[in-house]
Amino acid sequence: MGGRIRRVVVHRRDVVRDRSNRREGRLFTGHLGRSHVVDSVDRRGKQLVVEFSNGGGMVVRLGMSGRITLGDGSKRNPATAHQHLAWMIEPSRPSQSPIRMSFIDPRRFGGVYLFSSIEDCRERLLAGLGPEATSIQGIHLGERLGRTRRAVKAALLDQSVLAGVGNIYADEALHRAGVHPERSGRSISLVEAKRLAAAIRLTLKRAIQVGGSTLRDHVLPDGSPGGFVGEHEVYGRGGEPCLSCGRQLEVIQIASRSSTFCPTCQG
After folding, report:
1. Where are the chain's structural domains?
2. How confident is the model at residue 171 (pLDDT cuts 50, 70, 90)?
3. Rg of the chain taking only CA atoms, in angstroms
4. pLDDT at 145 > cutoff 90
5. Is 4-125's fold the same as 133-261's?
Protein backbone atom coordinates (compact mmCIF):
# COMPACT_ATOMS: atom_id res chain seq x y z
CA MET A 1 0.00 0.00 0.00
CA GLY A 2 1.04 3.62 -0.41
CA GLY A 3 2.56 3.35 -3.90
CA ARG A 4 1.77 6.18 -6.30
CA ILE A 5 0.64 5.38 -9.83
CA ARG A 6 2.83 7.50 -12.10
CA ARG A 7 1.57 6.24 -15.46
CA VAL A 8 -1.22 4.15 -16.94
CA VAL A 9 -0.86 2.55 -20.37
CA VAL A 10 -4.06 1.50 -22.14
CA HIS A 11 -3.70 -0.99 -24.99
CA ARG A 12 -7.39 -1.94 -25.20
CA ARG A 13 -9.95 0.58 -24.00
CA ASP A 14 -12.87 -1.83 -24.40
CA VAL A 15 -11.86 -3.92 -21.36
CA VAL A 16 -12.60 -0.91 -19.13
CA ARG A 17 -16.12 -0.15 -17.94
CA ASP A 18 -16.59 3.47 -16.96
CA ARG A 19 -18.50 4.72 -13.91
CA SER A 20 -21.78 4.20 -15.74
CA ASN A 21 -20.90 0.55 -16.54
CA ARG A 22 -20.47 1.44 -20.21
CA ARG A 23 -17.53 0.84 -22.54
CA GLU A 24 -18.20 3.81 -24.80
CA GLY A 25 -17.09 7.33 -24.03
CA ARG A 26 -13.74 8.96 -23.43
CA LEU A 27 -11.46 7.17 -20.99
CA PHE A 28 -9.51 9.27 -18.47
CA THR A 29 -6.41 7.51 -17.12
CA GLY A 30 -6.88 9.49 -13.92
CA HIS A 31 -9.91 7.33 -13.25
CA LEU A 32 -7.58 4.32 -13.56
CA GLY A 33 -5.42 5.77 -10.80
CA ARG A 34 -2.85 7.94 -12.60
CA SER A 35 -1.25 10.40 -10.13
CA HIS A 36 -3.06 8.80 -7.18
CA VAL A 37 -1.78 6.71 -4.29
CA VAL A 38 -3.05 3.15 -3.86
CA ASP A 39 -4.83 3.29 -0.50
CA SER A 40 -6.00 -0.31 -0.26
CA VAL A 41 -6.22 -3.59 -2.14
CA ASP A 42 -8.89 -6.07 -1.11
CA ARG A 43 -10.69 -9.12 -2.49
CA ARG A 44 -14.40 -9.83 -2.71
CA GLY A 45 -15.24 -13.24 -4.11
CA LYS A 46 -13.21 -13.60 -7.31
CA GLN A 47 -12.79 -9.84 -7.71
CA LEU A 48 -9.93 -7.52 -6.79
CA VAL A 49 -10.92 -4.15 -5.30
CA VAL A 50 -8.35 -1.34 -5.54
CA GLU A 51 -9.10 2.00 -3.82
CA PHE A 52 -7.23 5.18 -4.69
CA SER A 53 -6.38 8.17 -2.48
CA ASN A 54 -9.03 10.32 -4.19
CA GLY A 55 -11.80 7.96 -3.01
CA GLY A 56 -12.33 6.35 -6.40
CA GLY A 57 -10.96 3.06 -7.59
CA MET A 58 -11.46 0.00 -9.72
CA VAL A 59 -12.71 -3.55 -9.50
CA VAL A 60 -10.67 -6.05 -11.52
CA ARG A 61 -12.64 -9.09 -12.68
CA LEU A 62 -10.39 -11.79 -14.06
CA GLY A 63 -13.10 -13.87 -15.73
CA MET A 64 -11.92 -17.24 -17.05
CA SER A 65 -8.49 -16.32 -18.42
CA GLY A 66 -7.52 -12.98 -16.87
CA ARG A 67 -4.56 -12.44 -14.59
CA ILE A 68 -2.56 -9.71 -12.91
CA THR A 69 1.22 -9.79 -13.28
CA LEU A 70 3.86 -7.79 -11.42
CA GLY A 71 7.21 -6.88 -12.92
CA ASP A 72 10.15 -4.50 -12.69
CA GLY A 73 8.84 -1.05 -13.59
CA SER A 74 12.34 0.34 -14.11
CA LYS A 75 12.69 -1.64 -17.35
CA ARG A 76 10.95 -0.66 -20.59
CA ASN A 77 9.58 -4.05 -21.52
CA PRO A 78 7.38 -4.32 -24.64
CA ALA A 79 3.74 -5.22 -24.09
CA THR A 80 3.15 -8.96 -23.94
CA ALA A 81 0.37 -10.73 -25.81
CA HIS A 82 -3.13 -9.84 -24.55
CA GLN A 83 -1.78 -7.20 -22.15
CA HIS A 84 -4.63 -4.70 -22.11
CA LEU A 85 -3.61 -2.33 -19.29
CA ALA A 86 -0.44 -1.53 -17.38
CA TRP A 87 0.18 0.62 -14.30
CA MET A 88 3.62 2.03 -13.41
CA ILE A 89 3.70 2.28 -9.62
CA GLU A 90 6.31 4.16 -7.61
CA PRO A 91 6.65 2.45 -4.19
CA SER A 92 6.38 4.39 -0.95
CA ARG A 93 9.95 3.47 0.06
CA PRO A 94 12.74 5.03 -2.05
CA SER A 95 14.84 1.87 -1.65
CA GLN A 96 12.29 -0.21 -3.54
CA SER A 97 12.14 -0.58 -7.31
CA PRO A 98 9.17 0.70 -9.34
CA ILE A 99 6.49 -1.88 -10.10
CA ARG A 100 4.79 -2.58 -13.41
CA MET A 101 1.35 -4.12 -12.84
CA SER A 102 -0.36 -5.53 -15.93
CA PHE A 103 -3.85 -6.82 -16.66
CA ILE A 104 -3.71 -9.69 -19.17
CA ASP A 105 -6.81 -11.46 -20.45
CA PRO A 106 -6.61 -13.58 -23.64
CA ARG A 107 -10.34 -14.29 -23.88
CA ARG A 108 -11.53 -10.93 -22.49
CA PHE A 109 -14.26 -12.36 -20.25
CA GLY A 110 -12.88 -10.20 -17.45
CA GLY A 111 -12.47 -6.46 -17.24
CA VAL A 112 -11.76 -3.39 -15.13
CA TYR A 113 -14.78 -1.59 -13.63
CA LEU A 114 -14.34 1.95 -12.33
CA PHE A 115 -16.09 3.39 -9.28
CA SER A 116 -16.31 6.91 -7.86
CA SER A 117 -16.40 5.97 -4.16
CA ILE A 118 -16.31 2.86 -2.02
CA GLU A 119 -20.05 3.27 -1.46
CA ASP A 120 -20.57 3.32 -5.23
CA CYS A 121 -18.46 0.18 -5.46
CA ARG A 122 -20.46 -1.70 -2.83
CA GLU A 123 -23.86 -0.61 -4.12
CA ARG A 124 -23.24 -1.01 -7.86
CA LEU A 125 -20.43 -3.53 -8.39
CA LEU A 126 -20.46 -5.82 -5.35
CA ALA A 127 -24.09 -5.75 -4.22
CA GLY A 128 -25.09 -8.98 -5.96
CA LEU A 129 -22.40 -11.18 -4.44
CA GLY A 130 -23.18 -13.88 -1.90
CA PRO A 131 -21.18 -14.55 1.28
CA GLU A 132 -17.48 -15.34 1.06
CA ALA A 133 -16.74 -18.97 0.24
CA THR A 134 -13.52 -18.92 2.27
CA SER A 135 -15.46 -18.36 5.49
CA ILE A 136 -18.92 -19.84 4.73
CA GLN A 137 -20.52 -21.78 7.58
CA GLY A 138 -22.79 -24.77 7.11
CA ILE A 139 -25.96 -23.21 8.44
CA HIS A 140 -25.66 -20.25 6.07
CA LEU A 141 -24.77 -22.43 3.09
CA GLY A 142 -27.73 -24.68 3.87
CA GLU A 143 -30.09 -21.70 3.95
CA ARG A 144 -28.90 -20.48 0.55
CA LEU A 145 -28.95 -23.89 -1.11
CA GLY A 146 -32.40 -24.52 0.34
CA ARG A 147 -33.82 -21.73 -1.82
CA THR A 148 -33.08 -23.42 -5.14
CA ARG A 149 -34.13 -26.51 -7.07
CA ARG A 150 -31.02 -26.27 -9.23
CA ALA A 151 -28.23 -28.80 -9.09
CA VAL A 152 -25.97 -28.08 -6.14
CA LYS A 153 -22.98 -27.75 -8.51
CA ALA A 154 -24.79 -25.03 -10.49
CA ALA A 155 -25.70 -23.22 -7.26
CA LEU A 156 -22.09 -23.23 -6.06
CA LEU A 157 -20.96 -21.61 -9.33
CA ASP A 158 -23.56 -18.84 -8.94
CA GLN A 159 -21.65 -15.93 -7.36
CA SER A 160 -24.89 -14.51 -5.96
CA VAL A 161 -25.28 -17.69 -3.90
CA LEU A 162 -21.66 -18.00 -2.81
CA ALA A 163 -18.80 -15.72 -3.83
CA GLY A 164 -15.45 -17.20 -4.76
CA VAL A 165 -16.05 -20.77 -5.99
CA GLY A 166 -15.05 -21.75 -9.54
CA ASN A 167 -15.55 -24.94 -11.51
CA ILE A 168 -12.41 -26.74 -10.33
CA TYR A 169 -12.98 -26.06 -6.65
CA ALA A 170 -16.68 -26.89 -6.77
CA ASP A 171 -15.84 -30.36 -8.13
CA GLU A 172 -13.11 -30.89 -5.55
CA ALA A 173 -15.24 -29.71 -2.61
CA LEU A 174 -18.27 -31.78 -3.63
CA HIS A 175 -16.07 -34.87 -3.87
CA ARG A 176 -14.46 -34.17 -0.50
CA ALA A 177 -17.93 -33.77 1.05
CA GLY A 178 -19.37 -36.87 -0.68
CA VAL A 179 -22.16 -34.91 -2.41
CA HIS A 180 -23.35 -35.75 -5.93
CA PRO A 181 -23.16 -32.62 -8.14
CA GLU A 182 -26.64 -33.21 -9.64
CA ARG A 183 -28.40 -33.19 -6.27
CA SER A 184 -30.98 -30.43 -5.93
CA GLY A 185 -29.81 -27.63 -3.67
CA ARG A 186 -32.92 -27.89 -1.53
CA SER A 187 -32.28 -31.63 -0.99
CA ILE A 188 -29.04 -30.96 0.91
CA SER A 189 -29.54 -31.60 4.63
CA LEU A 190 -28.03 -29.41 7.33
CA VAL A 191 -25.49 -32.13 8.14
CA GLU A 192 -24.48 -32.30 4.47
CA ALA A 193 -24.37 -28.50 4.21
CA LYS A 194 -22.00 -28.32 7.17
CA ARG A 195 -19.81 -31.00 5.61
CA LEU A 196 -19.86 -29.24 2.24
CA ALA A 197 -19.08 -25.83 3.77
CA ALA A 198 -16.07 -27.31 5.59
CA ALA A 199 -14.93 -28.95 2.34
CA ILE A 200 -15.20 -25.64 0.44
CA ARG A 201 -13.19 -23.78 3.09
CA LEU A 202 -10.51 -26.48 3.21
CA THR A 203 -10.26 -26.81 -0.58
CA LEU A 204 -9.91 -23.06 -1.12
CA LYS A 205 -7.44 -22.67 1.74
CA ARG A 206 -5.19 -25.35 0.29
CA ALA A 207 -5.52 -24.00 -3.26
CA ILE A 208 -4.55 -20.51 -2.08
CA GLN A 209 -1.55 -21.91 -0.20
CA VAL A 210 -0.10 -23.51 -3.35
CA GLY A 211 -1.12 -20.81 -5.83
CA GLY A 212 -4.20 -22.25 -7.52
CA SER A 213 -4.41 -24.52 -10.55
CA THR A 214 -2.44 -23.78 -13.71
CA LEU A 215 -4.18 -25.49 -16.62
CA ARG A 216 -3.92 -22.99 -19.48
CA ASP A 217 -3.79 -19.30 -18.64
CA HIS A 218 -3.50 -18.98 -14.87
CA VAL A 219 -0.13 -18.07 -13.38
CA LEU A 220 0.89 -16.25 -10.21
CA PRO A 221 1.73 -12.51 -10.40
CA ASP A 222 5.44 -13.36 -10.71
CA GLY A 223 4.75 -15.71 -13.65
CA SER A 224 5.18 -19.00 -11.79
CA PRO A 225 2.51 -21.76 -12.11
CA GLY A 226 0.08 -22.72 -9.37
CA GLY A 227 0.66 -26.05 -7.66
CA PHE A 228 -2.88 -27.23 -6.87
CA VAL A 229 -3.30 -28.99 -10.22
CA GLY A 230 -1.15 -31.82 -8.86
CA GLU A 231 -3.61 -32.29 -5.99
CA HIS A 232 -6.83 -32.59 -8.01
CA GLU A 233 -8.76 -35.64 -6.84
CA VAL A 234 -11.47 -35.44 -9.50
CA TYR A 235 -11.26 -32.37 -11.73
CA GLY A 236 -9.67 -33.20 -15.09
CA ARG A 237 -9.46 -36.90 -14.20
CA GLY A 238 -12.60 -38.20 -15.90
CA GLY A 239 -12.26 -41.88 -16.82
CA GLU A 240 -9.47 -42.41 -14.30
CA PRO A 241 -9.89 -44.36 -11.05
CA CYS A 242 -11.14 -42.57 -7.96
CA LEU A 243 -8.27 -42.07 -5.53
CA SER A 244 -10.54 -43.10 -2.65
CA CYS A 245 -12.40 -46.18 -3.92
CA GLY A 246 -10.89 -47.01 -7.31
CA ARG A 247 -14.12 -46.71 -9.33
CA GLN A 248 -13.92 -44.90 -12.65
CA LEU A 249 -14.68 -41.20 -12.39
CA GLU A 250 -17.52 -39.90 -14.57
CA VAL A 251 -17.97 -36.57 -16.37
CA ILE A 252 -21.32 -34.84 -16.96
CA GLN A 253 -22.41 -31.35 -18.00
CA ILE A 254 -24.03 -29.08 -15.42
CA ALA A 255 -24.74 -25.40 -16.15
CA SER A 256 -22.70 -25.74 -19.35
CA ARG A 257 -19.61 -26.76 -17.37
CA SER A 258 -17.97 -30.16 -17.09
CA SER A 259 -18.44 -31.85 -13.73
CA THR A 260 -16.27 -34.78 -12.67
CA PHE A 261 -17.36 -37.00 -9.78
CA CYS A 262 -17.18 -40.48 -8.32
CA PRO A 263 -20.52 -42.37 -8.57
CA THR A 264 -19.61 -44.42 -5.48
CA CYS A 265 -18.15 -41.83 -3.10
CA GLN A 266 -20.75 -39.26 -4.18
CA GLY A 267 -23.62 -41.61 -4.84
Report:
1. 4-125, 133-261
2. very high
3. 20
4. yes
5. no
Coil, strand or helix: which one is 186? Answer: helix
Q: Cα–Cα distance between 13 and 89 in angstroms, integer? A: 20
Distance CA 122, CA 256 (A): 29
Residues 6+ apart with CB under 8 A from 93: none
Give tens-digit pLDDT for 22-79. Answer: 775 678 899 999 999 999 999 999 899 999 999 999 999 988 788 898 888 877 777 7
Tell which CATH classification among 3.20.20.450, 3.90.226.10, 3.20.190.10, 3.40.50.720 matches the domain 4-125.
3.20.190.10
Bridge-based pairing of strands 250-254 and 38-44 is unpaired
Instruction: Specify whether the backbone of 23 is left (phi greater than 0), alpha (psi in -120 to 50) or beta.
Output: alpha
Architecture of the domain defined by 133-261: Orthogonal Bundle (1.10)
Q: Is 123 exposed, middle or buried (0-12, 13-18, 19+ CB in 10 A)?
A: exposed
Long-range contacts of 114-120 (CB under 8 A, 24+ apart): 114/16, 114/17, 114/18, 114/19, 114/31, 114/32, 114/56, 114/57, 114/58, 115/19, 115/56, 115/57, 115/58, 115/59, 116/19, 116/55, 116/56, 117/55, 117/56, 118/51, 118/55, 118/57, 120/19
At 132-142, the pLDDT tens digits run: 999 999 999 99
- What pTM, to 2 d.p., does this model score? 0.86
Quote the CA–CA distance of 36 and 45 in Å, as a whole number: 25
